[in-house]
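PROTOCOL LOG
Step 1. Enter all chains and additional molecules of the complex.
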Amino acid sequence: MTHDFKWKTAPAVLIADDSMVNRKIMESFLQQFGCSVKTISNGEQALQQFTSSRWDLIFMDVNMPGMDGLEATARIREAEKQNNPPSHIPIVALTGGIMPDEQRKCYEAGMDEIIAKPLSMENLSSVFKNNLSHLIH
Amino acid sequence: MSEEYIPETLLVLDKATALENFCDNSELLDEMLQYFADGIPEKLKNLKTSIAAKDYPVWISTAHLIKGEAATLCLQRINAVALKLEQAGKHQEPAEAEAMLAVMEKEMQAFANTLPKK
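Step 2. Run joint prediction.
Step 3. Record the structure below.
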């Protein structure tokens, strides 16, 4: 099944998640939306990818071994402030729980939106509308 | 024993919801379920060794990983017991972990039995 998004240019999407199952599912879902996708498994790699490549959207798992999604997001936001003009890449938290305390931590770290697992094509569709409207025809 | 940790109403696999989440792509769902099943021995091993060693960071992260994957695949019973194991790790309560682990093994087997034989 192909999802009916008509992109001006295919979005480049980075997925940071330590679960290989979730990475594979996300990758498959996003490819069905016509996205160009790269998957990585921790916060350090997310930071490295943010620095070395151009992304339209990052899906960031909150709990990852090593540098977690909160720290990686905070560091990305810090780095963005140094850009001239300052930039802002949408970062969407992937989380197993939506407890108020966890939500607060995500937003404080600089995440734009939170989607709770289970992942679905429907909630990804909503993320695109909320964060990548400038790329949709 | 499972009833202590898992509400009776929960399903091994809520296939209807899983298919809905996968937009009726049953091929992809089956592929991901098999992929999860292939990783069961390693996950159980990591849980067992970390619980035996009271290695709480590995215990918590392994239970958390299982919880997230099970949620995505709508494996309700595995998800429920993984949550209990994660909480037990967070509260550093090893007393019941062995019993929870036994339930996890039973539920993993019950799930594996739902898959076509390779």
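Step 4. Note key features.
Residues 69-82 of chain A form the longest helix (14 residues).
The interface with chain B takes residues 1, 3, 18-22, 24-25, 28, 32, 61, 63, 65, 96, 117-122 of chain A (CB under 8 Å).
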